[in-house]
């Protein structure tokens, strides 16, 4: 089970379908939150994911700087329900930070995190830069990672 990193143009039709299916399962169905899942940012993002038996089991997207924020960004972080607690999220986030620092030569990463994940992201060096706010009725915070703070 290898990690895949692809631009939108490199994704196969089936990979796009499976990614959107799993993101919808987690963010819309599981969290009971109707919102615009297909938001246009996928087209400019790098997609990091792992598949098992044709299903996406872990996924995130990396947005280049100036796409959503002035900083590079990580978003849509998911691990399929059956695979949570296995270390996939930690492995994926470490890999994403390395890709951003080494391949994209970026030193800052901004994220919009669900508040309950503040300690998880904090363990990677992300620091909270906002008060708690509601995004689609879910408490969120903005966090920033700076290579120089490591």
TrEMBL record:
Keywords per UniProt: Acyltransferase, Transferase
GO molecular function: acyltransferase activity
Family matches, as Gene3D superfamilies: 3.40.630.30
Pfam families from the UniProt entry: Acetyltransf_10 (PF13673)
InterPro entries to which the protein is assigned, alphabetical: Acyl_CoA_acyltransferase, GNAT_dom, GNPNAT1-like
SUPFAM superfamilies in UniProt: Acyl-CoA N-acyltransferases (Nat)
EC number(s) recorded for this UniProt protein: 2.3.1.-
Domain N-acetyltransferase span(s) in chain numbering: 6-150
PANTHER family from the UniProt entry: GLUCOSAMINE 6-PHOSPHATE N-ACETYLTRANSFERASE (PTHR13355:SF11)
Protein name per Swiss-Prot or TrEMBL: GNAT family N-acetyltransferase
Organism: Alkalihalobacterium chitinilyticum
Lineage: Bacteria, Bacillati, Bacillota, Bacilli, Bacillales
């Amino acid at each position: 089970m290898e990690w895949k990193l692809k631009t939108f143009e490199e994704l196969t039709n089936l990979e796009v379908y499976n990614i959107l299916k799993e993101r919808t399962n987690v963010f819309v169905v599981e969290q009971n939150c109707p919102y615009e899942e297909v938001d246009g940012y996928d087209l400019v993002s790098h997609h990091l994911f792992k598949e098992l038996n044709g299903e996406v089991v872990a996924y995130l997207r990396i947005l280049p700087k100036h796409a959503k924020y002035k900083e590079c960004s990580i978003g849509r972080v998911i691990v399929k329900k059956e695979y949570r607690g296995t270390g996939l999220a930690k492995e994926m986030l470490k890999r994403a930070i390395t890709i951003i620092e080494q391949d994209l030569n970026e030193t800052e990463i901004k994220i919009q995190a669900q508040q309950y994940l503040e300690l998880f992201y904090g363990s990677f060096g992300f620091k909270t830069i906002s008060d708690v706010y509601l995004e689609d009725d879910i408490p969120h915070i903005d966090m920033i990672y700076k290579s120089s703070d490591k």
